[in-house]
Amino acid sequence: MYFFSALFEEADLDLAEKAIASDLKLLEGLLKTDPNNDKLLLMVSQGFGAYALGFVEDEYPERAEKLYLRGKGYGLRILTGNKNFDRALSKPIGDFEKSLQSFDHKDVPALFWTANNWASWINLNFSNPSALADLPRVQLLMKRVIQLDPSYFYGGAHLFFGTIYAARPPILGGNMKLSKEHFDKCFAFSQEKFLLPYVYFAKYYLTREFDEETFTSTLGIFQSKQKLFILKL
Fold it and tell me: Is 229 helix (H, G, I), strand (E, B) or coil?
């Protein structure tokens, strides 16, 4: 998907922010005339997730929540075209997991961006038990992405698991060893072309490990780049 690639490479972040917001409104308008267009749905799902993370979440978390939910909703409109998944979406977790086997490689982008938006919304609602109850379903979506294409979006599913295992205490499933393994796989896929893993590795893993030297060198890699992201979507 190349629609947003030039904007991710835009050095003027104010210009990029305005352009993405404008493009999202344009795409939503196109969806009103073609509501079942999976390509458009995927673009909007990805776009809302990227826009909320890059330009909204830090200063306006409540607004970001709404954007993530919109992105998740557009992704689910694609995935629920699969009748097995549609029937299992609100059923017990075992049925939900079984339904994911009906997806194949072509479904990876929709699986990933739906899960990414969903996870980002949960991250802003950690004090909400009903939000936390959704996390196992998000983990299963990301697990299916890894099964089908672990390299997708620069190993983005590995970034998710690396972050989750580091952020949670052991009693809630945290595991620093597994976190490091997933971060390493993400680094291998991204090859410094996608810099967000370095920020999350420092923020979630290295702060837990109290590794000041690696923390400094990791952020140094990030700061040495002139652009925040260089992506080919």
Answer: strand
- Which of 136-173 are b and which e, b meaning 16 or more Cβ less than 10 Å from the residue's Cβ? ebbbbbbbbbbebbbbbbbbbbbbbbbbbbbbbeeeee
Q: Which two tokens stand for residue 104?
A: 């194949």
pTM of the predicted protein model: 0.87
Condensed to tens digits (0 to 9), the pLDDT of residues 95-153 reads 999 999 999 999 999 999 999 999 999 999 988 999 999 999 999 999 999 999 999 99
Domains of the chain: residue spans and CATH: 5-223 (1.25.40.920)
Question: Which residue, chain included where needed, has tokens 């196109």?
Answer: 30
Nearest residue to 124 via CA among 175, 81, 71, 78: 71
Q: How far apart are CA 82 and CA 68, in angstroms?
A: 22
Q: How many CB atoms lie within 10 A of CB 6?
A: 11
